[in-house]
Amino acid sequence: MFQNRLLMLALVCTGSIAVWGIVDTEGLAQLANKVVAAQFESRGWFIMLTASFMLLVAIVLACSSDGRIRLGNDDDRPEFPTISWLTMLFAAGMGVGLLFYASAEPLTHYGFFEGKNAREAANSALFITNFHWGLHAWAIYAMTGLVIAYFSFRKGLPTLVGAPIPAVLGSNSVTRSIGWICNLLAIVAIAIGLSGSVAMGVFQVQQGVNVLAGWQESGLTVSLAIFVVLCISFTLPLLVDLGKGMALLSNVAMGIAVLLLLFVLLTGPTNYLMGVTVQSIGEYFASVIPHGFRTYTFLDGEVSDWFQGWTLNYMVWWLAWAPFVGVFIARISRGRTIREFLVGVILVPTAFSMLWFGVFGGIGFFGVLQTDLPLMETLNTDIDAVTFFVLQQLPLSSLTTLLVVVAAFLFVVTSVVSAAFVLAIFSTNGNLEPSTKVKLS
Hints:
Elements: H1 2-23, H2 25-63, H3 82-93, H4 96-101, H5 104-112, H6 118-133, H7 135-154, H8 164-169, H9 173-213, H10 220-235, H11 246-267, H12 270-291, H13 301-331, H14 338-369, H15 375-381, H16 386-391, H17 397-427, H18 436-440
């Protein structure tokens, strides 16, 4: 009964927000902007401190003797092969965002830092991009998932965000209510966060369709058609278990992403791109920990607005997605040690993201600094088109554009599938193997 009330209230909350957004889009957007701005102005320091604290705790845990503790019984072993495990957690956690922002985000920050020397601006832009998608982001996911996995697999608690609270603080009406509220907020955050990711994916796929079809732009009809196909597509993987559905889609999507990365690296200015990537790795690891405590308190309004609009926005986005991604990562990580879990969830995706932005960001900077390509104009006109514009400068652009469309589509599908799986876990009070009927409903 307690769980049914949770789901009903979550449905009412998310449904109300959805209806409000349809009836009064501008009003909802204004309110959301005001609330977010108020939080950023008064709690920006807390957001950065939280993300940095989670990263530091993860480092200490991974290096300590506790890193040998297994998430499950001592004789448990991982359910999924390491490659499938990594591709699934990456696809659930970020996926389509890398395709969307591949060259666009580094170039956006470059435009903000243009007052510096051009090459210093490019260096700063790539560092901040890596910071947004690197260790701090994945530490948020990892620590959330680790807490849930530990209490679920070692202590036998339901796989729910709020379950550890009464276990640690003592089970009483107050702590159980706090846990219940946490579960409610997690479901609402999953629904709202997923809608943003799906919208991003739809627009990315639509832009690719426009490029392939030779259209300048396409309207709402194409957007709706893509959305309908997505809805049909994500039902199929939910009919089978994770190893046959989600794992297969994630492996294919990540395989395409790796092929795109290698293609751009080898057909583009390889020496330049490798130089950019190696330098960005050094710059990142030299400054990432101190930068996690930067709040830009003493700088002017323009810098403060940029910091809030990008860095704080990203950190809050990862925190909002943490209940969904954390529960999903916990679900697929039984049998792994804490050290293996933290290294796999934090270091491996960060390393891939740095390679990705080093290559795609680097080729964007090459176009701006070396060949005078109108990339900044494309960025200012249509941010969705930047990745495709970059690929059009290389051989086989029609094929690579098609691959981006397919990868974006698959990444959106994997996000929806993993979210549906997590919501099914919530609706069955932490059951790790919810029925197909529950997953589809």
